[in-house]
Amino acid sequence: MTAPLFHLSPGALEGAAVGSAIALTGAEGHHAATVMRIGVGEQVLLSDTRQTQAVGVVVAVGSGELTIQLSEITLQPADLPRLVLVQALAKDKRDLQAAESATELGVDAIIPWQAERSVARWKPGREEKKHAEWVNLVTASAKQTRRTSIPEVRQLRTTAQYCQQIAGTQEIGVVVLHEVQERSLRSCLTDLGALETSPAVQELHLVVGPEGGISEREIEQLTAAGAYPARLGAHVLRSSTAGPAAIAGTQLLLGRWEWD
After folding, report:
1. Where are the alpha helices (DSSP H) in the chain?
2. Burial letters 124-145, b for 16+ CB under 10 A, else e
3. Collapsing DSSP states into helix, strand and coil, what is residue 98?
4. Helix (H, G, I), strand (E, B) or coil at 99
5. CA dist., res. 151 & res. 153, Å (int)
6. Which of 5, 167, 235, 238 is the most buried (most CB within 10 A)?
């Protein structure tokens, strides 16, 4: 069984070396020492939530904290283009299901999207609380899957706000998943240059609509802003499934996952 992973603060592993000792304190230290009852001699993983992960052995247990001696340090540079899921708000927490699965599949960032046909809404005054819910879910999912980095959950965007963000930006490539389109995901990624060895596109956005789909007006707005509409497959996928499926397919097309 893989050793449990615990999050340190960003930069906490900077300058650390094999043999050095790291104190795991705070909420993570309490969970490790008091809830999980991890003892001396057990192996754990530590992440700075960015690019560095370390393997270590517990050498001391205190009240709500562990002291860990590092035995291995690994730097995991971010791949380009970074994968970003633009997920429309959806009812019955299907948007959160998509965000959770996307994290497990390697997404780098998530943008909650208030689409025209979104039944779910973030009520005025509750945006911060809803955003925190997404952050907490993504953080827990990253920890469960032993990911070094935690995907960034960006601020909620309306269609107009998102189109303004991507319009005229050469470093962002956008693919909108829409069931009536004829072009494939591979074709769009090829035209965006995302499949090249050194892609000019720094971020690849995969846009997923709500239960009722993306409106024709939104397709026109997104296309005018430079997005490429594409059909993922023969079947219409739920809002909770389309994004993760597209991320999995993109990971394969980018050569980041093994085919055999």
Report:
1. 26-30, 94-104, 127-144, 159-166, 185-192, 216-224, 239-253
2. eeeeeebbebbbebbbebbbee
3. helix
4. helix
5. 6
6. 5
Helix/strand/coil for 106: coil
Q: Which residues contact 88 (CB under 8 A, 6 or more apart)?
A: 95, 113, 114, 115, 117, 118, 208, 209, 210, 214, 239
Over range 21-48, report the average pLDDT: 94
**Residue 205 phi/psi, 5° resolution?**
-95, 130
User: Could you tell me the pTM of the whole model?
Assistant: 0.91
pLDDT surpassing 80 at residue 181: no
Q: Which residues of 63-100 are buried (b: 16+ CB within 10 A; e: fewer)?
A: ebbbbbebeebeeeeeebbbbbbbbbbbeeebbbbbbb
pLDDT, one tens digit per residue, over 93-106 is 999 999 999 999 99
Q: Where are the beta strands (DSSP E) in 26-102?
A: 43-47, 52-62, 65-75, 82-88
Q: Which amino acid is at 239?
A: S
- List phi, psi (to 5°) of 111: -115, 110
Helix or strand run (H / E) with residue 111: strand 109-114
19/239 Cα distance (integer angstroms): 47
The span from the CA of 73 to the CA of 240, in Å, is 35
Nearest alpha carbon to residue 72 among 51, 52, 97: 52
Taking the C-alpha atoms of residue 85 and residue 204, their distance in angstroms, rounded to an integer, is 9
At 260 the pLDDT is 64
- Residue 57, both tokens: 């052995």
DSSP state of 231: B
What is the pLDDT at residue 11? 87
Query: What is the chain's mean pLDDT, rounded?
Result: 93
199-243 pLDDT tens trace: 889 999 999 999 889 999 999 999 999 999 998 877 878 999 999
